[in-house]
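#struct-help
A.M.: can someone run this one for me? Single chain, 291 residues.
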Amino acid sequence: MKEIQLSLLLNMESPASVFNEVRVIVIKIIPEYGFETLEQVFADIVSLFHGEYPGYRECTTSYHDLTHTTDTFLAMARLMHGAWEQGAHLTNKHITLGLVCALMHDTGFIQTMGDKAGTGAKYTPIHIVRSITFMGNYLDENRINRAEFKGYPDILRCTGLDTEIDKIHFDSPQIELLGKILGTADLLGQMADRIYLKKLLLLYREFQDGGIKGYESELGLLRKTPGFWDLTKRRFVEELGGVNEYMRSHFKARWNIDRDLYLEVTEKNINYLKFILEHRKEDYREYLLRD
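D.P.: on it. Structure tokens below:
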């Protein structure tokens, strides 16, 4: 019998496969859900990252790429489903708002067509503000009523690691829940990636391009990653409302798996990284780049 692994449930490298799974999840929450807006936004975001959206270049950040966005999109849907399984009240509008915000959360890394200098990683310190601006412009350009997406700036702000979420005045408890779910989905989506450790080398390059201080080398970033995971687990509880625990409810209801597969694969990633740092730091790249 094949071992149950997160990456084996579906092809997470395929945007179409991810969207199809999100469709299955959403129908479990609202069987009559209308997918027209979500389908449009999803197609446009795929086009944006591929360089096919008018006025914008292809994505130039290798860590914050389309796969990270679709990973976050899927994790968002799974957490919302788990929340609903535990009694959260989510309407059609809430589902659309949360999932569209997940798709939009890193659009701030995308450069405009005339922006030829460097990569989108240079916007790391301000990418959330740029994402909020992009989403607002997108809603206006596509004649989508902003009132239907009330609260989206606050939801997007919850992805910032330095955002003091308890100081945000959310429009409603549901908007607060969606913000905390997106902040959690963003972290889980990247750290539970099967090739997360390999992609940390790409993250270091982005930090260099973005002028992020405190990381003197690839190895320096790797050494700080286990501590970052410890801080992330505390952030889940202290700032993000413990919504990560909804993941287990999702897997139980969707797959009859009474486990949190995101937590399992992230712990596995971190434990393997600790092994490399302790025993193989001289040739760490050889071990990280193994597929």
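A.M.: thanks! The chain has one domain: 9-288.
D.P.: also worth noting: The chain has a mean pLDDT of 96.
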